[in-house]
From TrEMBL:
This is KIB1-4 beta-propeller domain-containing protein. PANTHER family: DUF295 DOMAIN-CONTAINING PROTEIN, OS06G0113600 PROTEIN. InterPro entries: KIB1-4_b-propeller (IPR005174). The lineage of its organism: Eukaryota, Viridiplantae, Streptophyta, Embryophyta, Tracheophyta. It comes from Triticum aestivum. Residues 32-200 form the KIB1-4 beta-propeller domain. Pfam families: Beta-prop_KIB1-4. It comes from the Eukaryota.
Length: 237
């Protein structure tokens, strides 16, 4: 933890304004951290330590998620549109036209952006809600050609991905999960509605009872995904 704290000014709006999503673009100890919030109709940026919020188009609307990947801040809106945020010398949001080629995403629900090693992934569930018989699919962003495109990923190799329906939890990836008894090439999914979390091997349906690794009860503290270094002051614990 950095030990640094600061309070942003009042978010533009009235007493009925509700914040739908909020996230830091970088750790507070970084050179230029910003807080992004959206109230369902507009998105605002607050630079740490400044005295006002800035509104940046064209990401007005419901921002679903932001991810920092290779020094860039990527975001996705509720419609699955991808955009890149530039924070210096001024805030600028650029929508990205990404081709799907012959891949159809109409059958995918609950889309998530995940930074996984050297890949920026879009992960979705084949089915309306992750359950037995459903499966997860992943696509990596390929920017090697003039027009960016999503390319299907067949395996996560020695990576595992952690996703939660709780909007407060950012999707995470973890290398070599066997070190703590986990499984590679799996998507660990937690539903805060059903209070279940399950392991889905990428591309394969969760058909076994062993896939459901935790069933909560109302008197159990709700789990959330964390990275161990979050609890290390030096970042190397």
């Amino acid at each position: 933890m950095s030990g640094v704290s600061s309070s942003p000014p009042q978010i533009p709006g009235d007493e009925f304004t509700e914040v739908y999503y909020g996230a830091l673009t970088a750790p507070l100890a970084s050179p230029n951290p910003h807080l992004l919030v959206t109230n369902g109709s507009h998105s605002y940026f607050w630079r740490f330590g400044s005295h006002s919020w800035l509104r940046a188009c064209p990401c007005d609307g419901t921002v679903k998620q932001i991810v920092t990947f290779k020094g860039q801040v990527f975001g996705m809106d509720s419609g699955g549109m991808l955009f890149v945020m530039h924070l210096v010398p001024r805030i600028r949001v650029r929508m990205m036209g990404v081709s799907w080629g012959e891949i159809s995403t109409r059958h995918l629900a609950n889309l998530y952006l995940v930074a996984c090693g050297d890949m920026l992934l879009l992960v979705g569930c084949r089915g309306s809600f992750p359950a037995r018989g459903d499966s997860f699919e992943a696509f990596r962003l390929d920017q090697s050609t003039e027009h960016a495109k999503w390319v299907r990923v067949e395996e996560l190799q020695n990576w595992a991905i952690f996703i939660s329906t709780d909007k407060r939890s950012q999707p995470l990836s973890f290398m070599n999960p066997e070190r703590w008894g986990g499984r590679s090439n799996c998507v660990y999914y937690y539903s805060h509605d059903s209070e279940h979390w399950a392991a889905f091997e990428l591309g394969k349906p969760a058909s076994s009872r062993n896939s459901f690794v935790f069933i909560s009860s109302s008197n159990v503290v709700q789990p959330t995904w964390v990275v161990p270094s979050m609890f290390s002051q030096c970042g190397d614990g």
